[in-house]
Hints:
Elements: H1 2-26, H2 49-81, H3 89-110
Amino acid sequence: MGSTRRNVLVAFAASTFLMAQEQDQENPRRPPLPPNPNDDLRLPNGKSQKDAIAKQEHEQALKDANDLMEVAHELRDELQKSGDYVVSMSSVKKTEEIERLARKIRGRLKQ
């Protein structure tokens, strides 16, 4: 009876081993892994794509900051020229423009 159990276990182990070998022969190579999104891509000129994007974002943020300062100075000048109890619609529009530019700059800096 002990040899029967042993024969069954050997047969089971052999069949499991043969099945594993058949699977390896059917699919000898694994498909290539997709590119890692964290890898730094290069532009045709050899520069890092991340660096180029960061530089462009920085330049745009500086331009928006300059625009913000210009609109803020215009608003200050309009408020100084207007009367004590009068606010023009263009002043209100300038405050909206200031808010829009500030949100735009903040969004770029958070990225």
